């Protein structure tokens, strides 16, 4: 008897997805509700659980393939093979020699130039039975999170790198013993968050859901699981965060006081270790201040022309290109136009040399639950408005989902940061080294302006250009910002390359 595994409902108006990762391979024994694969749509990541216990017989849709709703992903054989997936509680079920076999769990490849990581979360504890490819723990590097699957089925015999420890690229994380091995369980305090379902059996929440709960600082008790037997899925955590943002907000770590803290105050403080991403952000920003001779020049732009042009063509734009026409493509085009006239803003210092870039790899700063990241749109100067908008939407979604790779955040030549989406009226952005310029966008606000001797209300935005004065002179910085202002106040100049 076989069971078909099909693409689940992907959400309103979403008709297709890409098979991102298979956690199992043909021949693997799986438990009911165990994660089989992960699908990616334009906006969300969808995990596909096993509908029943059994053996994965065939994978029909390989990684990288595009599938529609209800498409066949794989087939599952049930019956005789199913009992084998139950936790090996009886030593007699294993071969006599198997109890002596162990498999080391090593740090996986972390990416080019990444030499160490921090163990952020263990999903299993010593003594737990694990299936092959089941997620054991999660590591944090400077930019991305890396999940570590079990290299073999068995029992987690030892954890050699506990949560919070720093490991290098070749370190051992844990040891897995053969199924049936009796292992002393770890102290109860180290047990992962698992809930008891009404059916009376333990339910392991989805790894992506655990990750999201940990990042958002939300308690497992505050989330209602909609998976089988009450299993918490990633979508359940998102709903809980939307319904109760105050309860879901993580508690911020108070700054280290310079003076002794009264006992009553100390009891009400909470100390939280900075993530590696936050540590890297702090280090790079401070390095930027210490290295570059950073100055900021300001101007303001009347957004009337851009807003009118956008309102006139936004429906046709969406209909033809399948993406909304936003402000970021106008700002990206305006910056590209200005960088051609003032190339030193698009350059960098390498020792005693100045490296001028004959291309524009535009960094678009994006806020995520774990910190600020800057995905890079390569060769933005060769793109149309539609191509830029599509790239920004795709990179932004991957940033929010934590799916950006190191390569996607490297090599930028200039950066745009939009603090206006958070309500910022004026700020001085910090350079993203080794770049020599960054443009800060801000809130659009109606203000009275003197136009042709008359006071009129116009939608105005303050612009800020922070630049490295070692390579960019004041004249060049002011000229750059004026050219951006001119292009935005008369967007037709962008079409005419004026």
From TrEMBL:
Domain annotation Peripheral subunit-binding (PSBD): ranges: 204-241
Any coiled-coil regions, as ranges: none
The protein's Enzyme Commission number: 2.3.1.61
A GO cellular component annotation in the UniProt record: cytosol
Cofactor(s) needed: (R)-lipoate
Main enzyme class: transferase
GO BP annotation list: L-lysine catabolic process to acetyl-CoA via saccharopine; tricarboxylic acid cycle
Secreted listed as a keyword: no
Molecular functions (GO terms): dihydrolipoyllysine-residue succinyltransferase activity
Biological or metabolic pathway of the protein: Amino-acid degradation; L-lysine degradation via saccharopine pathway; glutaryl-CoA from L-lysine: step 6/6
Swiss-Prot/TrEMBL keywords: Acyltransferase, Lipoyl, Transferase, Tricarboxylic acid cycle
Region listing for Disordered, in residue ranges: 191-214
Reaction equations catalysed: N(6)-[(R)-dihydrolipoyl]-L-lysyl-[protein] + succinyl-CoA = N(6)-[(R)-S(8)-succinyldihydrolipoyl]-L-lysyl-[protein] + CoA
Pfam families the UniProt entry points to: 2-oxoacid_dh, Biotin_lipoyl, E3_binding
All copies of domain Lipoyl-binding, residue ranges: 2-77, 102-177
Role summary: E2 component of the 2-oxoglutarate dehydrogenase (OGDH) complex which catalyzes the second step in the conversion of 2-oxoglutarate to succinyl-CoA and CO(2).
Similarity comment: Belongs to the 2-oxoacid dehydrogenase family.
Subunit structure: Forms a 24-polypeptide structural core with octahedral symmetry. Part of the 2-oxoglutarate dehydrogenase (OGDH) complex composed of E1 (2-oxoglutarate dehydrogenase), E2 (dihydrolipoamide succinyltransferase) and E3 (dihydrolipoamide dehydrogenase); the complex contains multiple copies of the three enzymatic components (E1, E2 and E3).
Protein name: Dihydrolipoyllysine-residue succinyltransferase component of 2-oxoglutarate dehydrogenase complex
Species of provenance: Thalassovita taeanensis
Lineage of source species: Bacteria, Pseudomonadati, Pseudomonadota, Alphaproteobacteria, Rhodobacterales
């Amino acid at each position: 008897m076989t069971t078909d595994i099909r693409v689940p409902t992907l959400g309103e108006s979403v008709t297709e997805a890409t098979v991102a990762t298979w956690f199992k391979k043909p021949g693997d024994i799986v438990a009911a509700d165990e994660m089989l694969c992960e699908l990616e749509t334009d906006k969300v990541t969808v995990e596909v659980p096993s509908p029943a216990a059994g053996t994965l017989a065939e994978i029909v849709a390989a990684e990288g393939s595009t599938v529609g709703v209800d498409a066949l992903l794989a087939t599952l054989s049930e019956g005789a093979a199913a009992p084998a997936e139950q936790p090996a509680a009886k030593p007699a079920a294993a071969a006599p020699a198997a109890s002596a076999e162990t498999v080391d769990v090593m740090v996986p490849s972390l990416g080019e130039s990444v030499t160490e990581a921090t163990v952020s979360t263990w999903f299993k504890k010593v003594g737990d039975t694990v299936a092959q490819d089941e997620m054991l723990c999660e590591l944090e590097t400077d930019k991305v999170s890396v999940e570590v699957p079990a290299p073999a089925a068995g029992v987690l015999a030892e954890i050699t790198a506990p949560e919070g420890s720093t490991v290098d690229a070749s370190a051992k994380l844990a040891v897995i013993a053969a199924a049936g091995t009796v292992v002393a369980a770890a102290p109860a305090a180290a047990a992962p968050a698992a809930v008891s379902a009404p059916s009376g059996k333990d339910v392991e929440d989805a790894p992506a859901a655990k990750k999201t709960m940990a990042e958002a600082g939300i308690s497992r008790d505050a989330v209602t699981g909609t998976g089988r037997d009450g299993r918490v899925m990633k979508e359940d955590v998102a709903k809980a965060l939307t319904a109760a943002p105050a309860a879901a907000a993580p508690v911020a770590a108070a700054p280290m006081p310079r003076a002794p803290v009264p006992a009553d105050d100390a009891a009400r403080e909470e100390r939280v270790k900075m993530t590696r991403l936050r540590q890297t952000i702090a280090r790079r920003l401070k390095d930027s201040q210490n290295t570059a001779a950073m100055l900021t020049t300001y101007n303001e732009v009347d957004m009337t022309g851009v807003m009118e042009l956008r309102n006139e063509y936004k429906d046709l734009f969406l209909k033809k290109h399948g993406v909304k026409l936003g402000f970021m493509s106008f700002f990206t085009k305006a910056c590209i136009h200005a960088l051609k006239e003032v190339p030193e803003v698009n350059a960098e210092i390498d020792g005693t040399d100045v490296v001028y870039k004959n291309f524009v790899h535009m960094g678009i700063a994006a806020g995520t639950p774990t910190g600020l990241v800057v995905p890079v749109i390569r060769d933005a100067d060769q793109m149309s408005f539609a191509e830029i908008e599509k790239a920004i939407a795709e990179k932004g979604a991957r940033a929010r989902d934590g799916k950006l790779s190191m390569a996607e955040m490297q090599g930028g030549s200039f950066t745009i940061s939009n603090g206006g989406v958070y309500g910022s009226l004026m700020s001085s952005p910090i350079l993203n080294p080794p770049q020599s310029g960054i443009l800060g966008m801000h809130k659009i606000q109606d203000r009275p302006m003197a136009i042709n001797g008359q006071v009129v209300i116009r939608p105005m935005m303050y612009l800020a250009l922070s630049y490295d004065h070692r390579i960019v002179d004041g004249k060049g910085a002011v000229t750059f910002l004026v050219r951006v202002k001119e292009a935005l106040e008369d967007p037709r100049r962008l079409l005419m390359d004026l």
